[in-house]
């Protein structure tokens, strides 16, 4: 059974880079189907926002509103993928989720810009 698990710093200072990792267990990030590994976030009291994805070939796509400061990458040797969000502000405080094709979700990682 494939599972996703986010891990992040918890607290990030304004202007720094937020980095959250999604570990994939029970399956490979490079095999098994036409999968897109997404990042999303949800600030408290607000709607879920799609940040971007990385596909099976390692190609990434981003929400235009965040594209200029977002990088999604993967480490196939560790079977995980990572979100980096640069120059964070208080507006980036949210629970960050990884999701495979929006059908499989991690439990979320709370990140607070402080």
Structure description:
The chain has no helices and 11 strands. With 114 residues, it is mainly β. It has strands at residues 3-7, 11-12, 18-25, 36-42, 49-55, 60-62, 70-75, 80-85, 94-100, 104-105, 109-113. It is 0% helix and 51% strand. The radius of gyration is 13 Å and the shape is globular. The N and C termini lie far apart (36 Å). Strands 2, 4, 5, 6, 9, 10 and 11 form a 7-stranded mixed β-sheet that branches. Strands 1-3-8-7 form a 4-stranded antiparallel β-sheet, with no helix packed on it.
Mean pLDDT: 94
Q: What is the N-to-C order of secondary-structure elements (H for helix, E for strand)? A: EEEEEEEEEEE
Radius of gyration over all CA atoms, rounded: 13 Å
The N- to C-terminal Cα distance equals 36 Å
Helical content class: under 10%
* Number of alpha- plus pi-helical segments: 0
Q: Strand-residue fraction?
A: over 45%
Largest sheet: 7 strands, mixed
- By secondary-structure content and strand pairing, the structural class works out as mainly beta
Give the uncertain stretches in residue-range form. none
Count of extended strands? 11
Rough outline: globular
Secondary structure topology:
Blueprint lengths: L2 E5 L3 E2 L5 E8 L10 E7 L6 E7 L4 E3 L7 E6 L4 E6 L8 E7 L3 E2 L3 E5 L1
Parallel strand pairs: 2-11
Antiparallel strand pairs: 1-3, 3-8, 4-5, 4-9, 5-6, 7-8, 9-10, 9-11
Q: What's the gist of this structure?
A:
With 114 residues, the protein is mainly β.
């Amino acid at each position: 059974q494939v599972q996703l698990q986010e891990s992040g710093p918890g607290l990030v200072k304004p202007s720094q880079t937020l980095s959250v990792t999604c570990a994939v267990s029970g399956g490979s990030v490079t095999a098994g189907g036409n999968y897109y590994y997404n990042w999303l976030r949800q600030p408290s009291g607000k709607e879920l926002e799609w940040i971007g994805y990385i596909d099976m070939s390692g190609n990434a796509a981003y929400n235009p509103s965040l594209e200029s400061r977002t990088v999604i990458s993967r480490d196939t040797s560790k079977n995980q993928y990572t979100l980096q969000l640069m120059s964070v502000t208080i507006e980036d405080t949210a629970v960050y989720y990884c999701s495979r094709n929006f059908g499989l979700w991690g439990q979320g990682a709370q990140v607070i810009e402080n």
